[in-house]
C-alpha cells in the first residue's frame, strides 16, 4: 500500500494553523510551539508578541517571573529555551539532564587546569553560592560574586596562545547550577531585551524515565511541527539517530511521503491519524524574530524558505534572522533601524493582500516595541541592511 502523501502546500497550511495562531496568554502560545528559543532574550518576547491577541511586555513578564508558568532551560543542542512549566521535567529528562552532566564534567576540567581545584572545592563553592542566594534573595552574578569569595577566583584560559584570556569562575559555576535547576534565571537587571539575569533559588525537576520523556517530547513536536523527518528530529533534539527512531516507534508515528521535500531527507512522520488535510484558514502574515521556533523548527528548510533567499536571511552557521511570513512560508525579512521603526522587505511578489497584511503586522510590532531597540545576537545580511 502506498504511503499517505503530504505536499508543501499542506505543510505550509499546518504552519499557519498550528504555529501562528493568535492566543490570549503566553502559556498557550508556548504550548503550541513546544519550546521557544531563548539564546537572545528579546526573541522570547517577540515570538510571543507575534502570536498574542493583545501583546504586552507585562503579560510576558508575568508568565516568566510572577506566575512562573514559563521557565528557561538549557536543553536541546545545548541551547537555552523557554518551555511551559509542566513540560519542563520532560525536557529536562529528555535533553537537559545529560547536558548538565557534561557541563559539570567540563567545569571540573576547567577548574583543575586553571587553578588546581577539585570536585570538593566546587561542591563547597556551590553550597556557599546557594546559601548566599537564600540569604540575599534575587541576585545578579556580580552580587553573588561579592558575597562568595570562591566565585571571584580567576583562571587563565589558553595560556600562551594569541587568544589567552583571564576569566572568573562565577559564570561557569552559575551556569552549571542553572543547568541542574538548582537555581534559575529571574528578571534581568535591565529591560526585557537584556540577558543580564538575576538568579533565584530553585529545585531539581522530577525525574521521569529518559525514554518516556523522549517519547513525550517527540509526540509534542510531531503534534505541532509534523510531518518531520528523522533528520529534522535528530537536529532539533540533538539526540543520536537511534534515540530518535526509538521515540518515533514508541509514539506510533506514521510514515508519510513528502513529494516536494528534499529528496535526501527521506520520508516524514506524523502522529497516528494525522495525515489528512488541514481545514482552510484565512491567509496570515507574521513578522517573526531571529531564531523564532517556527523558523528554526526543521533542519530541512527549503519547503518554507526559498533557497534563493537563504544568503540574505541566514548567517553563516544557519541561524535565521527576522523574517516576514505569508501563508506559511518566508517571503521577506525585517529589522529595526535606530529610529525605532520596523523596516521590512518582501523578497518575492505575493500580491496586494499580503502587502497590506504585512504592513499591518509591522505597525502592530512597532507599537509593541515602543521605545525598545532590538538587535539580534546573530545578525544576517538583510537585517543589517534594513537596520542601517
UniProtKB/TrEMBL annotation:
The keyword DNA-binding applies. It holds the Pfam family AlkZ-like. It comes from the Bacteria. Keywords: DNA-binding. The keyword DNA-binding applies. GO terms for molecular function: DNA binding. PANTHER family: LMO0824 PROTEIN, WINGED HELIX DNA-BINDING DOMAIN-CONTAINING PROTEIN. This is Winged helix DNA-binding domain-containing protein.
